[in-house]
Amino acid sequence: MNGITDKIMTGTVGELLVQIRLLQFGVQAAPPIKDSGNDLIAVCGHEFRAVSVRTTTTGRYNKPDSCRKYHVLAVVSLVGQDRDVHLDQSRIFLIPQSEVASASTDCASLGAFEFSPQQVEALFGSVSS
Description:
This protein has 129 residues and is of the alpha+beta class. It has helices at residues 6-24, 97-100, 117-124, and strands at 28-30, 40-44, 47-56, 72-77, 80-81, 84-85, 91-96.
């Protein structure tokens, strides 16, 4: 069996955490069948969004290349050490693509983009019952 690098594990945990948190608010998200540069495709009602995910354990992240196409950048700041990750303490930030260029790369400065029901609704639309 092939091993999983720490980088792949960290990125995958971040993507899965974003999927779970979005699902809690009625947004279905899944990785595309082929890796086209988008980590997740999210669906809410009639709205579809391409999501790029950046996961960090240091509190700083790298922005996607400016030519990359996506709608939302999800930044995940994992809390824990090595393989002991505290998902309930980890933070997610949802940044509209139009604001990524001016957004900080320091998670401590991303409070305006903190994952919340309001942020999810603003980016993905309201969940129809």
